[in-house]
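Chapter review: from sequence to fold.
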Amino acid sequence: MEQLKTLSFLSGILGVIVVGLGAWTRLADAGLGCPDWPGCYGFVTIPMNPEDIEIANAKFPETPYELAKAIPEVVHRYFAATLGLFIVCIYVLTLRLKDLSPNIRKLTLFLLAWVILQGTFGYLTVSLKLLPQIVTIHLMAGFLTTALVWLLYFKSKDLLSSGKEGWNLSSQTLRLLSLGLILVTIQIFLGAWTSTNYASYSCIDFPLCQGQLLPEANFREGFNFFQSIGPNYLGGVLDHESRLAIHLSHRIGALVVCLYLTFLSYHFLSQKKTEFATYLLGILALQVLLGISNIVFALPLLVAVGHNLGGLLLITYLGVLRFKE
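The token string follows.
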């Protein structure tokens, strides 16, 4: 059991790194830094010498090789592959452990299937040239993978310290946590949809947008999930009004989530769960500050990556609180 705890902890750290690297790759416009998959311009590693670069450009003349974009893409792929290997090891380990709860066995089996599916979405992200629907699913699937690994860690940790008292959350608290998870999941989707459609720059002021409270926006086209598959989605294909609709929806969602999680923190305080309330408010405050900083400072790369990781931390924290016991 100690091995399961250690492996799941290391996998959780790897998951955070993979999500951060994925955000870095996307925000640096390096999603097509390697136009093929799983190699990079036909190479196992990054083409470095002039001869290899010439071969790479000859193979993919429509996407000239750029070292600065190939590096984050390849690094992200190798870390993701390592995470996948760790999850395979976790599953093999659970097959050897006899006294293991059915819930943990089911969780590890789901993780194994899910990480294989995630690899498929990684391939589709490249082959479909950053189609927003696929990239959004790939991003959210990465969040779920990491959150589940951390849930596995806390469950295995509990098994090693079975004598300690649990959190004893009431049924009302669990229902409130479930609703919180739904709202945060929707908000993460809106954030991913904003990023994959390059709508982050649509509102460059705060708290107004284009100097207005509600500027003219095209919500119908902004949330048209049946776009035809085009040649390349790098930089986005939607018009300004459609991107405005996406950005505004993410802002409105942020307000709803902020109000609800503040209420949830108050509920924790009323239930004498001060520590839970403190952590939740701290994560929420950090995430709000990072989101506002993205707008005010014109999407600095490190801040934008931090905002992605803040969303991951928030949904992981709520998920562990809801499903650990």
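Two observations follow directly from the output. The chain has a mean pLDDT of 93. DSSP finds ten helices and no strands in the chain.
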